[in-house]
Design brief:
22 helices; globular; mainly alpha
């Protein structure tokens, strides 16, 4: 089994290196350095593969700690202002580590790695599954034992309690896998007639458990449930029973021989095609046209007979996609107005100081608008709609990619995107001016730079997405995002926008610098589109 574990680790490590090399070949500035290299290129790869097990031994505890920190510790720490209650943490541990394994089996899940190693590289399925399952669970046990021993020690509990919790989690994992495998073999779970229904039930179960867990632990704090969870983790009887059941489960898993049926259950070419298609369609689900929303009059309108060429094409496109483009604009504008009406009513009937406090907060905590404007922006949806409903077909024709035509289309589209984004922003600015004049007129001068900041941010997000689209054109005809640079830059924009919630900086310094940077970015983006887009904007 150890030899199989090493082989699996080497394959995983080689796959990671190959994926990283593929990524490097897509980065514009350095891809030439790797132009002539192939995926068997580095002798170093074979040498490094011997370190794959060591890497896994080191990385698994860090991953376990990160998951625990983000999903369990931080929510409790933030909601309760730094107070960490052991009972609330145990409620989260119970759901995430004890209940979730019974919702979805690791062995019976669709897994590309299983398909590659067993079906393409011809490793025996029993050796593969048992090695991966047992080795993975041993690693997870030691990682969680280390994590919980340290964590519970800080909460003035015996470090042995952390090891006990880790054993309970590992026992639950083994028991759940054995139960799934038993029903798979004995109860015709491998019949695919009800597969879609099972998938839906799995998603619903995950969602319900997660939501209820957070509500119970952080909001309702149901005492009876807390007592049950405390009893579950502290009871010696339950602990012994779980260990016995886990031992029986390990024996059953080890003696199970029909792993060929397991690999064929959800690891076929058809399964992967369905998953890829579902992911692709999900990315563009919000931009698909629905025929029932259009009448003959909509499709045969003479409204734009005075236009011609690309003016006519884009006018017709935005007219037929107005529900995708303008509906979010109307909804967001309505929400902004409703929020300010509520603020006005609260100030009038409940708390007279709310309006003034809000203005003071906005003037001093203006950085929240970076993330807020990011959320209000509809640019990403419009760009996806442009590709899915227009460019995916037209980019096949040479005339559509010519420089003058392409640039004219870019600016026509940019105007529509700016209009779609700026309307909610202008309504927001007007509402801010009104409540400032009513509740804190002395702050009107301080508000003006903030309003300028908000408008420039709206222009920034309007330009950014269409600029990225024309420079990278990341979408393939299969509706996948192929360009890694596109994904990385958009993630960085999201990350910076989100982190701005935590920034506190003097307005006299931060506002001018941010506004200038945004304006310079907009000018550079438009210039790059003008110079580079005729070469980069193409179908993939």
């Amino acid at each position: 089994m150890f030899k199989t574990i090493v082989q699996i680790s080497n394959i995983q490590f080689s796959t990671s290196i190959n994926a990283f090399l593929y990524f490097l070949k897509k980065i514009p500035l350095i891809k030439r350095l790797f132009k002539n290299s192939n995926y068997s290129f580095f002798k170093l790869k074979n040498a490094l593969s011997t370190l794959s097990l060591i890497y896994k031994l080191i990385s698994t505890p860090f991953k376990s700690a990160l998951i625990f920190l983000l999903t369990m510790f931080l929510p409790v720490f933030i909601v309760f202002d730094g107070e960490v209650d052991i009972n609330k943490i145990l409620v989260l541990i119970f759901s995430f580590y004890i209940l979730f394994p019974f919702v979805l089996s690791k062995i019976l899940s669709t897994d590309r790695e299983s398909f590659i190693i067993v079906k393409q590289l011809k490793m025996h399925p029993r050796n593969y599954f048992l090695s991966k399952l047992f080795f993975g669970e041993i690693l997870n046990f030691f990682s969680k034992a280390l994590l919980f021993s340290i964590f519970f020690s800080f909460l003035s509990l015996n470090f042995l309690f952390g090891i006990k919790v880790a054993l309970i989690i590992s026992s639950a994992n083994m028991i759940s896998e054995a139960i799934y495998l038993y029903f798979f073999a004995k109860k015709d779970l491998n019949k695919k007639e009800s597969e879609n229904a099972r998938d839906i039930i799995t998603v619903v179960a995950y969602s319900v458990i997660m939501v209820l867990t957070y509500v119970i632990a952080l909001v309702l704090q149901i005492e009876i449930y807390f007592n049950f969870i405390s009893f579950f983790f502290n009871s010696s009887l339950i602990f012994i029973v779980l260990l016995i059941l886990a031992s029986l489960s390990i024996t059953y898993l080890y003696k199970y021989n029909n792993f060929w049926n397991v690999i064929n259950y959800k690891n076929t070419i058809e399964d992967f095609k369905k998953i890829n298609q579902a992911i692709s369609e999900a990315n563009f689900a919000n931009v698909k046209l629905k025929e029932k929303n259009y009448s003959d009059e909509d499709l045969h309108t003479s409204k734009f007979n005075d236009k011609e060429g690309y003016d006519y094409l884009n006018a017709l496109f935005f007219e037929r996609h107005k529900r995708i483009i303008y509906k979010p604009m109307i909804i967001k504008s309505s929400i902004i107005v409703a929020v300010f009406i509520i603020i006005f009513l609260v100030n009038l009937f409940i708390e007279a100081a709310v309006g003034e406090e809000l203005i003071n907060y906005i003037v001093n905590g203006y950085t929240i608008f970076t993330f807020f404007i990011y959320l209000l922006s509809n640019s990403d949806t419009i760009v996806k709609s442009l590709f899915y409903n227009c460019d995916k077909s037209l980019l096949r024709y040479g005339f559509y990619k010519q420089g003058d035509a392409l640039l004219k289309t870019f600016f026509l589209r940019l105007k529509k995107i700016v209009f779609s984004n700026i309307i909610p922003i202008l309504i927001l600015c007007i509402c801010l001016i009104i409540i400032t004049l009513i509740y804190s007129p002395s702050n009107i001068i301080n508000l003006i730079p903030v309003l300028l900041f908000i408008i420039v941010l709206s222009l920034f997000f309007s330009v950014h997405y269409i600029f990225m689209y024309y420079i990278f054109q990341p979408y393939t005809t299969d509706l996948k995002v192929k360009n890694p640079f596109f994904s990385i830059i958009n993630f960085l924009v999201y990350f910076i926008s989100y982190m701005s919630l935590q920034i506190t900086a003097p307005a006299k310094i931060f506002l001018p610098i941010t506004i200038v940077i945004a304006i310079v970015y907009i000018l550079i983006a438009i210039t790059l589109v003008y110079k580079k887009a005729p070469k980069t904007f193409r179908v993939k």
